[in-house]
Design brief:
Largest sheet: 5 strands, mixed
Number of strands: 9
Distance between the termini: 13 Å
CATH class: Alpha Beta
Strand order of the largest sheet: 5-4-3-7-8
Radius of gyration: 15 Å
Number of domains: 1
Strand content: 15-25%
CATH superfamily: Glutaredoxin
Number of helices: 4
CATH topology: Glutaredoxin
Length: about 180
């Protein structure tokens, strides 16, 4: 499967259910100059280790115009922790401050070319891809020596191109 290339326009998505009961599309986030789409799931240890990091990044960059959105593309029949009920429980427990959406048939993951959880895609105001890859350079944020996603956000908010627009994501495979 091919992944979205840097500079490409983001694939549209429509009518994804959120754990908050609302339904979302790419257009739902039009007022945000930066949209950070993160493919996650409920059971992956790498995702679990980074949940607080995602919440903190959303909090830190929200006033500047960044909007995080998490998408779970795992098949809940093959991965029972990834049902909407379990997603909602996890979002409440970890106090997600961003929408958490279900991509039940993995269509959105396929269109983006997401290969793992977590896998990050940063989109500019024109919804062109400006960064894709990992959050940090290690599975445990406490041991990170390079914060790839945050460095990309800093570059963008400074009006500069992203110095490292692509990194290799790692974590758990998306269960289709």
């Amino acid at each position: 499967m091919a992944t979205l290339i840097v500079g490409a326009r983001a694939p549209d998505f429509q009518d994804l259910p959120g754990v908050d009961g609302a339904r979302y599309s790419l257009a739902s986030f039009a007022r945000h100059p930066l949209l950070i789409v993160v493919f996650i799931c409920t059971g992956c240890p790498t995702v679990k280790a980074n949940e607080a990091r995602l919440v903190a990044l959303q909090e830190r960059y929200e006033r500047a115009g960044a909007r995080f959105v998490a998408i779970n593309s795992n098949n809940p029949y093959l991965s029972p922790p990834d049902t909407m009920d379990e997603m909602a429980r996890r979002a409440r427990e970890k106090r997600f401050n961003f929408p958490y959406l279900k991509d039940a048939d993995a269509t959105v993951a396929d269109r983006f070319g997401a290969i793992s959880t977590p896998h990050v895609f940063v989109l500019d105001a024109a919804r062109r891809l400006v960064y894709k890859g990992r959050i940090d350079d290690t599975r445990d944020p406490a041991n990170a020596t390079r914060s790839d996603l945050e460095e990309a956000l800093r570059d963008l908010f400074a009006g500069s191109p992203v110095r490292a627009p692509e990194t290799q994501p790692f974590g758990c495979a998306i269960v289709r």
